Amino acid sequence: MHFTTLLLAAAGIASAKWIVPGARWLDTEGNIFNAHAGGLCIDRESGKFYWFGEYKPEGQVEGGGISVYSSDDLATWESHGLALDTIEGHPWISPDNVIQRPKVIYSEETEKYHMWWHADDAKYSSLLQGLAVSDSIAGPYTFVDATAPMGNWSQDFGAFTDYKTGNSYALYSNGDRLEGRDVYLSKFNSNLTSVDEVVFRFNKYDFEAPTIVQTEKSYYALMSHKTGYRPNNVVAMRADKLEGPWSQPFFVSPAYTRTFSTQSGFSWRIKGTKKTTYLYMGDQWDSVSLWESRNVWLPIDIDEREGSLQVLWHDIFDLNVKTGEWTPIKGKTYNSKNAKLAGDVWLQEATFGAGNVIATGIYGNESTITFEVEGQGQDQWVSFYHQNTDDMGFGDQPQGAPDRIGGSWQLRRISSVAVNGDTENVETLYQRDSHKGIILSSPLLLPLKKGKNTITVGGLYNGVDHKGADLDRIVVYPPEPKTKGGKN
Ligand SMILES: *[C@@H]1O[C@H](CO)[C@@H](O)[C@H](O)[C@H]1NC(C)=O
Ligand SMILES: *[C@@H]1O[C@H](CO)[C@@H](O)[C@H](O)[C@H]1NC(C)=O
Ligand SMILES: *[C@@H]1O[C@H](CO)[C@@H](O)[C@H](O)[C@H]1NC(C)=O
Protein backbone atom coordinates (compact mmCIF):
# COMPACT_ATOMS: atom_id res chain seq x y z
CA MET A 1 0.00 0.00 0.00
CA HIS A 2 2.82 2.38 0.79
CA PHE A 3 4.42 1.19 -2.34
CA THR A 4 1.39 2.23 -4.36
CA THR A 5 1.33 5.63 -2.67
CA LEU A 6 4.96 6.20 -3.56
CA LEU A 7 4.43 5.13 -7.13
CA LEU A 8 1.48 7.44 -7.55
CA ALA A 9 3.40 10.34 -6.05
CA ALA A 10 6.42 9.65 -8.24
CA ALA A 11 4.24 9.56 -11.32
CA GLY A 12 3.11 13.11 -10.49
CA ILE A 13 -0.57 12.31 -10.52
CA ALA A 14 -1.09 12.93 -6.85
CA SER A 15 -3.42 15.86 -7.35
CA ALA A 16 -6.76 14.55 -8.44
CA LYS A 17 -9.02 16.95 -10.25
CA TRP A 18 -11.92 14.62 -10.63
CA ILE A 19 -13.78 13.44 -7.56
CA VAL A 20 -13.53 9.66 -7.27
CA PRO A 21 -15.72 8.55 -4.35
CA GLY A 22 -14.28 5.66 -2.37
CA ALA A 23 -10.83 5.83 -4.00
CA ARG A 24 -7.65 6.23 -2.01
CA TRP A 25 -7.36 10.02 -2.12
CA LEU A 26 -3.92 11.57 -2.07
CA ASP A 27 -2.88 15.09 -1.16
CA THR A 28 -0.61 17.27 -3.31
CA GLU A 29 2.44 15.59 -1.78
CA GLY A 30 1.21 12.09 -2.54
CA ASN A 31 0.26 11.21 1.03
CA ILE A 32 -3.07 9.71 1.98
CA PHE A 33 -5.87 12.22 2.53
CA ASN A 34 -6.37 11.35 6.17
CA ALA A 35 -9.35 13.34 7.43
CA HIS A 36 -12.46 11.42 8.36
CA ALA A 37 -15.94 12.40 9.56
CA GLY A 38 -15.00 15.97 8.84
CA GLY A 39 -16.42 19.26 7.74
CA LEU A 40 -15.68 22.24 5.50
CA CYS A 41 -15.10 25.88 6.33
CA ILE A 42 -14.18 28.73 3.98
CA ASP A 43 -11.16 30.92 4.77
CA ARG A 44 -12.22 34.57 5.20
CA GLU A 45 -9.04 35.83 3.56
CA SER A 46 -8.34 33.54 0.61
CA GLY A 47 -11.82 32.17 -0.02
CA LYS A 48 -10.28 28.68 -0.11
CA PHE A 49 -12.03 25.59 1.19
CA TYR A 50 -10.58 23.99 4.33
CA TRP A 51 -11.52 20.45 5.26
CA PHE A 52 -11.08 19.32 8.86
CA GLY A 53 -11.30 15.65 9.78
CA GLU A 54 -10.26 12.94 12.19
CA TYR A 55 -6.67 11.95 11.62
CA LYS A 56 -6.31 8.18 12.01
CA PRO A 57 -2.76 7.01 12.63
CA GLU A 58 -1.97 3.71 10.95
CA GLY A 59 -2.79 0.80 13.22
CA GLN A 60 -4.48 2.98 15.87
CA VAL A 61 -8.12 3.55 16.66
CA GLU A 62 -8.12 6.92 18.43
CA GLY A 63 -5.72 9.64 19.35
CA GLY A 64 -4.82 11.19 16.04
CA GLY A 65 -6.09 14.72 16.57
CA ILE A 66 -7.68 16.78 13.78
CA SER A 67 -6.03 17.18 10.40
CA VAL A 68 -6.66 20.04 7.95
CA TYR A 69 -6.36 20.35 4.17
CA SER A 70 -7.07 23.24 1.80
CA SER A 71 -8.40 23.31 -1.75
CA ASP A 72 -9.71 25.63 -4.46
CA ASP A 73 -11.71 22.97 -6.27
CA LEU A 74 -12.72 20.40 -3.61
CA ALA A 75 -10.64 17.83 -5.51
CA THR A 76 -6.99 18.91 -5.12
CA TRP A 77 -5.97 18.95 -1.47
CA GLU A 78 -2.93 20.48 0.19
CA SER A 79 -2.12 19.23 3.70
CA HIS A 80 -1.55 21.69 6.54
CA GLY A 81 -0.81 18.97 9.09
CA LEU A 82 -2.73 18.86 12.34
CA ALA A 83 -5.08 21.74 13.18
CA LEU A 84 -5.59 20.26 16.65
CA ASP A 85 -2.76 18.14 17.97
CA THR A 86 -3.07 15.79 20.92
CA ILE A 87 -1.38 16.64 24.23
CA GLU A 88 -0.06 13.80 26.37
CA GLY A 89 -1.92 13.67 29.72
CA HIS A 90 -4.56 16.26 28.72
CA PRO A 91 -8.04 15.39 30.06
CA TRP A 92 -9.77 15.84 26.65
CA ILE A 93 -7.22 15.93 23.86
CA SER A 94 -4.72 13.29 24.91
CA PRO A 95 -3.95 10.44 22.51
CA ASP A 96 -6.35 8.30 24.59
CA ASN A 97 -9.34 10.59 24.12
CA VAL A 98 -12.10 10.30 21.58
CA ILE A 99 -11.73 13.38 19.32
CA GLN A 100 -14.39 12.95 16.66
CA ARG A 101 -16.46 14.68 13.99
CA PRO A 102 -14.80 18.13 14.02
CA LYS A 103 -16.61 21.14 12.53
CA VAL A 104 -15.17 24.65 12.19
CA ILE A 105 -17.19 27.88 12.03
CA TYR A 106 -15.92 31.47 11.99
CA SER A 107 -17.21 33.73 14.76
CA GLU A 108 -17.72 37.36 13.69
CA GLU A 109 -17.79 38.42 17.33
CA THR A 110 -14.58 36.81 18.55
CA GLU A 111 -12.95 37.13 15.08
CA LYS A 112 -11.65 33.59 15.52
CA TYR A 113 -12.29 30.21 13.97
CA HIS A 114 -14.14 27.96 16.40
CA MET A 115 -13.61 24.23 16.19
CA TRP A 116 -16.25 22.01 17.81
CA TRP A 117 -16.17 18.23 18.11
CA HIS A 118 -17.31 15.22 20.09
CA ALA A 119 -14.96 15.15 23.08
CA ASP A 120 -14.88 12.02 25.19
CA ASP A 121 -12.89 9.51 27.19
CA ALA A 122 -11.90 6.26 25.53
CA LYS A 123 -15.07 4.54 26.82
CA TYR A 124 -17.54 7.10 25.47
CA SER A 125 -18.81 7.70 29.00
CA SER A 126 -18.51 11.53 29.14
CA LEU A 127 -20.28 12.54 25.90
CA LEU A 128 -19.17 16.19 25.71
CA GLN A 129 -18.58 18.88 23.09
CA GLY A 130 -15.05 20.21 22.72
CA LEU A 131 -14.21 23.78 21.71
CA ALA A 132 -10.86 25.03 20.45
CA VAL A 133 -10.15 28.37 18.76
CA SER A 134 -7.62 29.85 16.38
CA ASP A 135 -6.96 33.22 14.72
CA SER A 136 -6.12 31.56 11.44
CA ILE A 137 -8.17 28.89 9.80
CA ALA A 138 -5.49 26.20 9.54
CA GLY A 139 -4.64 26.55 13.22
CA PRO A 140 -3.01 25.46 15.42
CA TYR A 141 -6.19 25.54 17.51
CA THR A 142 -6.03 26.17 21.26
CA PHE A 143 -8.21 24.02 23.49
CA VAL A 144 -10.86 26.03 25.38
CA ASP A 145 -13.16 23.54 27.11
CA ALA A 146 -15.21 20.36 26.87
CA THR A 147 -18.80 20.91 27.99
CA ALA A 148 -22.24 19.30 28.15
CA PRO A 149 -24.69 21.31 26.01
CA MET A 150 -27.40 22.52 28.37
CA GLY A 151 -26.41 19.69 30.71
CA ASN A 152 -27.18 16.93 28.23
CA TRP A 153 -25.02 14.30 26.57
CA SER A 154 -23.58 14.86 23.13
CA GLN A 155 -22.16 12.12 20.95
CA ASP A 156 -21.96 12.29 17.15
CA PHE A 157 -21.46 15.96 16.37
CA GLY A 158 -22.58 18.00 13.38
CA ALA A 159 -22.83 21.74 12.75
CA PHE A 160 -24.75 23.82 10.27
CA THR A 161 -24.99 27.53 9.39
CA ASP A 162 -28.28 28.78 7.93
CA TYR A 163 -27.35 30.75 4.80
CA LYS A 164 -30.44 32.94 5.08
CA THR A 165 -30.15 34.01 8.74
CA GLY A 166 -26.45 33.43 9.38
CA ASN A 167 -27.29 31.56 12.60
CA SER A 168 -25.28 28.45 13.42
CA TYR A 169 -26.56 25.25 14.95
CA ALA A 170 -25.14 22.16 16.57
CA LEU A 171 -26.58 18.74 15.76
CA TYR A 172 -25.81 15.93 18.15
CA SER A 173 -27.09 12.55 19.16
CA ASN A 174 -27.32 12.20 22.92
CA GLY A 175 -25.85 8.75 23.23
CA ASP A 176 -27.01 5.16 23.31
CA ARG A 177 -28.52 5.05 26.81
CA LEU A 178 -32.24 4.50 27.10
CA GLU A 179 -32.76 8.10 28.32
CA GLY A 180 -30.83 9.35 25.30
CA ARG A 181 -31.27 8.06 21.74
CA ASP A 182 -32.44 11.45 20.50
CA VAL A 183 -30.82 13.87 18.09
CA TYR A 184 -30.72 17.51 19.15
CA LEU A 185 -30.75 20.51 16.87
CA SER A 186 -29.61 23.40 19.08
CA LYS A 187 -28.65 26.99 18.40
CA PHE A 188 -25.23 28.39 19.20
CA ASN A 189 -25.05 31.70 21.06
CA SER A 190 -24.08 34.70 18.95
CA ASN A 191 -20.32 34.36 19.54
CA LEU A 192 -20.29 30.57 19.02
CA THR A 193 -18.90 29.82 22.48
CA SER A 194 -21.80 27.70 23.69
CA VAL A 195 -24.93 25.91 22.58
CA ASP A 196 -27.81 27.62 24.32
CA GLU A 197 -31.24 26.82 22.91
CA VAL A 198 -32.88 23.59 21.76
CA VAL A 199 -34.59 24.27 18.43
CA PHE A 200 -35.83 20.74 17.83
CA ARG A 201 -35.36 17.26 19.25
CA PHE A 202 -35.63 14.21 16.97
CA ASN A 203 -37.10 11.98 19.64
CA LYS A 204 -36.03 8.37 20.08
CA TYR A 205 -35.26 7.68 16.42
CA ASP A 206 -31.81 6.58 17.66
CA PHE A 207 -29.95 8.17 14.74
CA GLU A 208 -26.40 9.55 14.55
CA ALA A 209 -23.93 11.20 12.11
CA PRO A 210 -26.28 14.17 11.46
CA THR A 211 -25.98 16.91 8.84
CA ILE A 212 -28.41 19.44 7.35
CA VAL A 213 -28.88 20.36 3.68
CA GLN A 214 -30.59 23.71 3.19
CA THR A 215 -32.36 24.59 -0.07
CA GLU A 216 -34.35 27.72 -1.01
CA LYS A 217 -37.47 26.12 0.42
CA SER A 218 -36.49 23.30 2.75
CA TYR A 219 -34.20 21.88 5.35
CA TYR A 220 -33.26 18.21 4.96
CA ALA A 221 -31.69 16.56 8.01
CA LEU A 222 -29.64 13.48 7.03
CA MET A 223 -28.71 10.92 9.67
CA SER A 224 -27.62 7.32 9.82
CA HIS A 225 -28.90 4.48 11.94
CA LYS A 226 -26.57 3.20 14.64
CA THR A 227 -24.57 0.21 13.48
CA GLY A 228 -21.09 1.29 14.58
CA TYR A 229 -18.64 1.40 11.69
CA ARG A 230 -20.86 -0.84 9.56
CA PRO A 231 -22.88 1.14 7.03
CA ASN A 232 -26.67 1.27 6.96
CA ASN A 233 -29.43 3.02 5.04
CA VAL A 234 -29.04 6.74 5.79
CA VAL A 235 -32.34 8.62 6.05
CA ALA A 236 -33.46 12.23 5.62
CA MET A 237 -36.30 14.23 7.14
CA ARG A 238 -37.66 17.43 5.60
CA ALA A 239 -39.02 20.62 7.15
CA ASP A 240 -39.95 24.19 6.11
CA LYS A 241 -38.53 25.51 9.37
CA LEU A 242 -35.80 24.21 11.67
CA GLU A 243 -38.36 24.17 14.50
CA GLY A 244 -40.37 21.64 12.48
CA PRO A 245 -42.71 19.94 11.91
CA TRP A 246 -40.27 17.47 10.31
CA SER A 247 -41.36 14.75 7.91
CA GLN A 248 -41.05 11.04 8.50
CA PRO A 249 -37.57 9.71 7.71
CA PHE A 250 -37.02 8.32 4.20
CA PHE A 251 -34.08 6.55 2.51
CA VAL A 252 -31.63 8.76 0.60
CA SER A 253 -30.25 5.96 -1.62
CA PRO A 254 -31.53 2.71 -3.12
CA ALA A 255 -32.56 0.31 -0.35
CA TYR A 256 -29.99 -2.24 0.81
CA THR A 257 -27.06 -0.40 -0.76
CA ARG A 258 -26.47 0.83 2.79
CA THR A 259 -26.01 4.27 1.27
CA PHE A 260 -23.33 2.89 -1.06
CA SER A 261 -21.54 1.48 1.99
CA THR A 262 -21.19 4.87 3.66
CA GLN A 263 -22.28 6.84 6.70
CA SER A 264 -23.52 10.44 6.55
CA GLY A 265 -21.73 13.21 8.44
CA PHE A 266 -21.49 16.34 6.35
CA SER A 267 -22.98 18.09 3.34
CA TRP A 268 -22.29 21.27 1.44
CA ARG A 269 -24.23 23.70 -0.72
CA ILE A 270 -22.39 25.19 -3.70
CA LYS A 271 -24.22 28.20 -5.09
CA GLY A 272 -22.52 28.43 -8.47
CA THR A 273 -23.00 31.00 -11.21
CA LYS A 274 -25.08 28.50 -13.21
CA LYS A 275 -26.39 25.98 -10.75
CA THR A 276 -26.78 25.23 -7.04
CA THR A 277 -25.29 21.85 -6.22
CA TYR A 278 -25.50 19.93 -2.96
CA LEU A 279 -22.83 17.46 -1.96
CA TYR A 280 -23.17 14.48 0.35
CA MET A 281 -19.88 14.04 2.21
CA GLY A 282 -19.87 10.65 3.86
CA ASP A 283 -17.45 8.11 5.23
CA GLN A 284 -16.79 4.62 3.97
CA TRP A 285 -15.41 3.24 7.20
CA ASP A 286 -12.98 0.37 7.22
CA SER A 287 -13.38 -1.09 10.66
CA VAL A 288 -10.53 -3.54 10.09
CA SER A 289 -8.09 -0.65 9.73
CA LEU A 290 -9.72 2.74 10.30
CA TRP A 291 -6.92 4.76 8.74
CA GLU A 292 -7.79 3.15 5.41
CA SER A 293 -11.37 4.41 5.54
CA ARG A 294 -12.35 6.31 2.42
CA ASN A 295 -14.19 9.55 1.78
CA VAL A 296 -17.26 9.29 -0.41
CA TRP A 297 -18.54 12.59 -1.75
CA LEU A 298 -21.51 12.48 -4.10
CA PRO A 299 -23.97 14.91 -5.65
CA ILE A 300 -27.46 15.09 -4.19
CA ASP A 301 -30.62 15.30 -6.27
CA ILE A 302 -33.52 17.15 -4.63
CA ASP A 303 -37.18 17.06 -5.63
CA GLU A 304 -38.81 19.96 -3.78
CA ARG A 305 -42.28 19.15 -5.09
CA GLU A 306 -42.15 15.71 -3.49
CA GLY A 307 -39.95 16.86 -0.62
CA SER A 308 -37.49 14.09 -1.36
CA LEU A 309 -33.75 13.81 -1.75
CA GLN A 310 -31.50 11.20 -3.34
CA VAL A 311 -27.75 10.75 -3.08
CA LEU A 312 -26.58 9.81 -6.59
CA TRP A 313 -23.81 7.30 -7.19
CA HIS A 314 -21.21 8.14 -9.84
CA ASP A 315 -17.86 6.33 -10.09
CA ILE A 316 -16.23 9.63 -11.09
CA PHE A 317 -17.53 13.15 -11.52
CA ASP A 318 -16.05 16.48 -12.41
CA LEU A 319 -17.20 19.33 -10.19
CA ASN A 320 -16.85 22.99 -11.08
CA VAL A 321 -17.13 24.90 -7.82
CA LYS A 322 -17.44 28.25 -9.66
CA THR A 323 -20.43 27.40 -11.84
CA GLY A 324 -21.82 24.74 -9.52
CA GLU A 325 -22.04 22.31 -12.42
CA TRP A 326 -20.93 18.71 -12.20
CA THR A 327 -20.52 16.10 -14.91
CA PRO A 328 -20.31 12.34 -14.51
CA ILE A 329 -17.34 10.91 -16.44
CA LYS A 330 -18.25 8.28 -19.02
CA GLY A 331 -16.30 5.04 -19.26
CA LYS A 332 -16.32 1.84 -21.27
CA THR A 333 -17.99 -1.21 -19.74
CA TYR A 334 -16.65 -4.78 -19.95
CA ASN A 335 -18.97 -7.50 -18.64
CA SER A 336 -17.77 -10.56 -16.75
CA LYS A 337 -19.92 -12.58 -19.14
CA ASN A 338 -17.38 -11.92 -21.90
CA ALA A 339 -14.22 -12.22 -19.78
CA LYS A 340 -11.80 -15.14 -19.53
CA LEU A 341 -12.34 -17.39 -16.51
CA ALA A 342 -9.69 -19.54 -14.83
CA GLY A 343 -9.69 -22.16 -12.07
CA ASP A 344 -12.99 -22.43 -10.18
CA VAL A 345 -14.51 -19.15 -11.39
CA TRP A 346 -17.87 -19.63 -13.11
CA LEU A 347 -20.80 -17.56 -14.32
CA GLN A 348 -23.79 -18.03 -12.06
CA GLU A 349 -27.29 -17.05 -13.12
CA ALA A 350 -28.19 -13.72 -11.48
CA THR A 351 -31.20 -11.58 -12.43
CA PHE A 352 -29.35 -8.50 -11.16
CA GLY A 353 -26.17 -9.18 -13.18
CA ALA A 354 -25.21 -7.77 -16.56
CA GLY A 355 -26.38 -10.38 -19.08
CA ASN A 356 -28.22 -12.21 -16.28
CA VAL A 357 -25.04 -13.71 -14.77
CA ILE A 358 -22.32 -12.82 -12.29
CA ALA A 359 -18.80 -14.28 -11.97
CA THR A 360 -18.38 -16.14 -8.70
CA GLY A 361 -15.71 -18.32 -7.05
CA ILE A 362 -12.86 -15.77 -7.39
CA TYR A 363 -10.26 -17.06 -4.97
CA GLY A 364 -6.51 -16.96 -4.38
CA ASN A 365 -4.27 -16.57 -7.43
CA GLU A 366 -5.57 -19.44 -9.52
CA SER A 367 -9.30 -18.84 -9.63
CA THR A 368 -9.30 -15.59 -11.55
CA ILE A 369 -11.16 -13.58 -14.15
CA THR A 370 -9.37 -11.68 -16.91
CA PHE A 371 -10.78 -8.76 -18.90
CA GLU A 372 -9.25 -7.56 -22.13
CA VAL A 373 -9.58 -3.77 -22.26
CA GLU A 374 -8.46 -0.83 -24.41
CA GLY A 375 -6.02 1.55 -22.76
CA GLN A 376 -4.66 5.00 -23.63
CA GLY A 377 -1.10 4.63 -22.35
CA GLN A 378 -1.73 6.42 -19.05
CA ASP A 379 -2.98 5.87 -15.53
CA GLN A 380 -6.71 5.33 -15.77
CA TRP A 381 -9.44 4.81 -13.23
CA VAL A 382 -11.13 1.43 -13.42
CA SER A 383 -14.27 0.68 -11.38
CA PHE A 384 -14.96 -2.89 -10.33
CA TYR A 385 -18.66 -3.69 -9.89
CA HIS A 386 -19.07 -6.40 -7.32
CA GLN A 387 -21.51 -8.21 -5.08
CA ASN A 388 -20.13 -9.13 -1.67
CA THR A 389 -22.38 -11.56 0.17
CA ASP A 390 -20.29 -11.95 3.27
CA ASP A 391 -23.55 -12.23 5.13
CA MET A 392 -23.43 -15.88 4.01
CA GLY A 393 -20.20 -16.52 5.92
CA PHE A 394 -17.52 -18.79 4.52
CA GLY A 395 -13.82 -19.10 3.75
CA ASP A 396 -11.72 -16.68 5.75
CA GLN A 397 -14.86 -14.77 6.76
CA PRO A 398 -16.96 -17.32 8.63
CA GLN A 399 -19.12 -15.00 10.74
CA GLY A 400 -21.67 -13.72 8.27
CA ALA A 401 -25.32 -13.03 8.83
CA PRO A 402 -26.34 -9.37 9.21
CA ASP A 403 -29.89 -10.48 8.52
CA ARG A 404 -30.09 -12.80 11.45
CA ILE A 405 -30.39 -12.14 15.16
CA GLY A 406 -27.04 -11.20 16.65
CA GLY A 407 -25.58 -11.16 13.17
CA SER A 408 -22.39 -9.43 12.20
CA TRP A 409 -20.50 -9.35 8.98
CA GLN A 410 -17.16 -8.56 7.47
CA LEU A 411 -17.00 -5.21 5.79
CA ARG A 412 -14.80 -6.17 2.93
CA ARG A 413 -13.44 -8.76 0.59
CA ILE A 414 -9.96 -8.26 -0.75
CA SER A 415 -9.11 -8.93 -4.37
CA SER A 416 -5.82 -8.60 -6.17
CA VAL A 417 -5.69 -6.87 -9.52
CA ALA A 418 -2.84 -7.50 -11.96
CA VAL A 419 -2.42 -5.46 -15.14
CA ASN A 420 -0.93 -7.23 -18.18
CA GLY A 421 0.03 -10.25 -16.06
CA ASP A 422 2.35 -8.20 -13.82
CA THR A 423 2.00 -10.27 -10.63
CA GLU A 424 4.92 -8.41 -9.02
CA ASN A 425 2.87 -5.21 -8.79
CA VAL A 426 -0.64 -6.35 -7.92
CA GLU A 427 -3.06 -3.72 -6.68
CA THR A 428 -5.22 -4.36 -3.63
CA LEU A 429 -8.93 -3.93 -4.20
CA TYR A 430 -11.16 -3.60 -1.12
CA GLN A 431 -14.72 -4.60 -1.91
CA ARG A 432 -17.25 -3.52 0.68
CA ASP A 433 -20.15 -5.64 1.78
CA SER A 434 -23.05 -5.05 -0.55
CA HIS A 435 -25.93 -7.27 0.62
CA LYS A 436 -27.29 -10.10 -1.53
CA GLY A 437 -28.41 -9.00 -4.96
CA ILE A 438 -26.88 -5.52 -4.67
CA ILE A 439 -24.00 -4.43 -6.87
CA LEU A 440 -21.60 -1.67 -5.81
CA SER A 441 -18.35 -0.48 -7.31
CA SER A 442 -14.83 0.28 -6.07
CA PRO A 443 -12.24 2.23 -8.06
CA LEU A 444 -8.52 1.66 -8.68
CA LEU A 445 -6.08 3.78 -10.66
CA LEU A 446 -4.28 1.40 -13.06
CA PRO A 447 -1.36 1.92 -15.46
CA LEU A 448 -2.73 0.96 -18.87
CA LYS A 449 -0.72 0.63 -22.07
CA LYS A 450 -1.91 2.14 -25.32
CA GLY A 451 -4.05 -0.49 -27.04
CA LYS A 452 -4.91 -3.89 -25.60
CA ASN A 453 -4.39 -4.67 -21.91
CA THR A 454 -5.43 -7.47 -19.63
CA ILE A 455 -6.82 -6.88 -16.14
CA THR A 456 -6.81 -10.03 -14.00
CA VAL A 457 -8.78 -10.17 -10.76
CA GLY A 458 -8.11 -12.88 -8.19
CA GLY A 459 -8.50 -13.19 -4.45
CA LEU A 460 -5.62 -11.53 -2.64
CA TYR A 461 -2.85 -13.82 -1.45
CA ASN A 462 -0.92 -12.20 1.40
CA GLY A 463 -0.04 -15.23 3.48
CA VAL A 464 -3.71 -16.17 3.54
CA ASP A 465 -5.88 -16.81 0.52
CA HIS A 466 -8.69 -14.26 0.36
CA LYS A 467 -11.92 -14.75 -1.46
CA GLY A 468 -12.69 -11.97 -3.93
CA ALA A 469 -16.20 -10.59 -4.23
CA ASP A 470 -18.41 -11.78 -7.10
CA LEU A 471 -17.68 -9.62 -10.11
CA ASP A 472 -20.32 -8.31 -12.49
CA ARG A 473 -18.38 -5.92 -14.74
CA ILE A 474 -15.63 -3.37 -14.85
CA VAL A 475 -15.70 0.15 -16.29
CA VAL A 476 -12.53 1.72 -17.71
CA TYR A 477 -12.45 5.53 -17.59
CA PRO A 478 -10.42 7.87 -19.82
CA PRO A 479 -7.25 9.40 -18.36
CA GLU A 480 -7.82 12.48 -16.24
CA PRO A 481 -6.95 15.69 -18.09
CA LYS A 482 -3.72 17.18 -16.76
CA THR A 483 -5.16 20.66 -16.26
CA LYS A 484 -8.60 22.07 -15.83
CA GLY A 485 -7.90 24.74 -18.47
CA GLY A 486 -10.16 25.23 -21.46
CA LYS A 487 -12.96 23.26 -19.98
CA ASN A 488 -15.08 25.94 -18.34
C1 LIG B 1 -30.91 14.43 28.01
O1 LIG B 1 -32.16 14.59 27.35
C2 LIG B 1 -33.04 13.50 27.52
C3 LIG B 1 -34.22 13.77 26.66
O2 LIG B 1 -33.81 13.98 25.35
C4 LIG B 1 -33.36 13.32 28.96
O3 LIG B 1 -34.23 12.22 29.13
C5 LIG B 1 -32.07 13.09 29.73
O4 LIG B 1 -32.32 13.01 31.10
C6 LIG B 1 -31.11 14.24 29.48
N1 LIG B 1 -29.85 13.90 30.10
C7 LIG B 1 -29.13 14.80 30.78
C8 LIG B 1 -27.82 14.34 31.33
O5 LIG B 1 -29.53 15.94 30.93
C1 LIG C 1 -19.71 35.22 24.37
O1 LIG C 1 -20.96 35.76 24.68
C2 LIG C 1 -21.38 35.50 26.02
C3 LIG C 1 -22.77 36.09 26.18
O2 LIG C 1 -23.65 35.47 25.28
C4 LIG C 1 -20.41 36.11 27.01
O3 LIG C 1 -20.78 35.75 28.32
C5 LIG C 1 -19.00 35.57 26.72
O4 LIG C 1 -18.07 36.24 27.54
C6 LIG C 1 -18.63 35.77 25.26
N1 LIG C 1 -17.38 35.09 25.03
C7 LIG C 1 -16.44 35.57 24.22
C8 LIG C 1 -15.19 34.75 24.08
O5 LIG C 1 -16.58 36.60 23.59
C1 LIG D 1 -0.35 -18.22 -5.12
O1 LIG D 1 -0.99 -18.73 -3.95
C2 LIG D 1 -0.28 -19.72 -3.27
C3 LIG D 1 -1.12 -20.18 -2.08
O2 LIG D 1 -2.40 -20.55 -2.48
C4 LIG D 1 1.07 -19.17 -2.82
O3 LIG D 1 1.82 -20.22 -2.21
C5 LIG D 1 1.82 -18.59 -4.00
O4 LIG D 1 3.00 -17.96 -3.57
C6 LIG D 1 0.96 -17.60 -4.74
N1 LIG D 1 1.65 -17.11 -5.92
C7 LIG D 1 1.73 -15.84 -6.24
C8 LIG D 1 2.44 -15.51 -7.53
O5 LIG D 1 1.23 -14.94 -5.56
Automatic annotation (TrEMBL):
Keywords: Glycosidase, Hydrolase, Signal. Pfam families: Glyco_hydro_43. InterPro entries: Glyco_hydro_43, Glyco_hydro_beta-prop_sf. SUPFAM superfamilies: Arabinanase/levansucrase/invertase. One of its GO terms (molecular function) is hydrolase activity, hydrolyzing O-glycosyl compounds. Residues 1-16 form the signal peptide. One of its GO terms (biological process) is carbohydrate metabolic process. Belongs to the glycosyl hydrolase 43 family. This is Probable beta-glucanase. It comes from Cephalotrichum gorgonifer. The lineage of its organism: Eukaryota, Fungi, Dikarya, Ascomycota, Pezizomycotina.
